[in-house]
Amino acid sequence: MKVLLLAGGRSVEAEVSQTSGNAVEAALKNLGFEVVRVDPEADGLEALLRCEAEVALLVTHGRYGEDGALQGVLEWLKIPYTGSGVAASAIAMDKSRTRILAQAVGVRVGEQIVPGAGIPPGRWVVKPQLEGSSVGITISDDPEILMQAQAELLDQGVPVVVERFVAGREITVPVFEGRAMPPVEIRVDQGFYDYTHKYTGGTQYDAPAQIGEAATAACQQAAEATYRAVGCRGLARVDFILPEGEEPVMLEINTLPGMTGKSLAPMSAKAMGWSFDDLIARQLAAARLGS
């Protein structure tokens, strides 16, 4: 079978996507597939017309690769693909819309305020509404710093989310075809799990997370509920903060989780006995068109 591997793109996460692509390409070749690798930005979408692939595996992250745009192209070309469909991909990229849907099905979410308004007392988080990999996040209890962070993003034409900071343990739960996988806990040496910690070090992981049966069940149930509410399919990953003795707070859902050596979904898969190659093969088997 010829597999179209899509990696790169034009988002700020393009470099990470290429790293994911390297790992996935090796796995696909181990599995015996013929691989045609395309960077939608560098090679152009016309490369998709020439590839004659039977299925597409996506490791494109961020805008234009994970937000429904590329998925729409594949729908038009009738090439089955991994990950969520057009609508779910677009919704999941939008943190505010994801939050609304998750809250509607009983998942706990954090308090948000209207961007550009005054900042109430306390610690708040300012972040782009439509980016991943913790890009562009500011956490502070200084209203001036928070207002400046908002202004800088808004001046760039970037929609903004402002939400109250929640203290707790950082937990992520991959979900595959509707079923939650083992939670992973992320522990950073200082600060929070930002782009630098994700991809350059200073982070420790527990897979599976050692949070007890009740908290594990709560995180998995909330992850599955969020996945269903957004309309996801294939592999996705839901991120939470777990306050001490409380219900998990959903932060966001990622419809094309990273596949690098430091990525979380492969860690969770390993905890349940799946090799990296197994995880890739299962995603391919779940590839399809439609929502």
| Radius of gyration computed on alpha carbons | 19 Å
Q: Quote the CATH topology of the largest domain.
A: D-amino Acid Aminotransferase, Chain A, domain 1
Q: What percent of the residues sit in helical stretches (DSSP H or I)?
A: 25-40%
Secondary structure class reads: alpha+beta
- CATH architecture annotation of the largest domain: 2-Layer Sandwich
CATH superfamily of the largest domain: ATP-grasp fold, B domain
Q: How many domains would you count in the coordinates?
A: 3
Summarize the helix and strand pattern as letters: EHEHEHHHEEEHEEEEHEHEEHH
Tell me what you see in this structure.
This protein has 291 residues and is an alpha+beta fold. It has three domains: 2-83, Rossmann fold; 92-108 and 167-274, D-amino Acid Aminotransferase, Chain A, domain 1; 112-164, no CATH class. It has ten helices and 13 strands. Strands 8, 9, 10, 11, 12 and 13 form a six-stranded antiparallel beta sheet that branches. Helix 1 crosses helix 10 (276-285) and helix 5 (95-104) packs across helix 8 (213-230). The model has no long low-confidence stretch (mean pLDDT 91).
Brief overview, please?
This protein is α+β, with helices and mostly antiparallel strands and 291 residues long. It contains 10 helices and 13 strands.
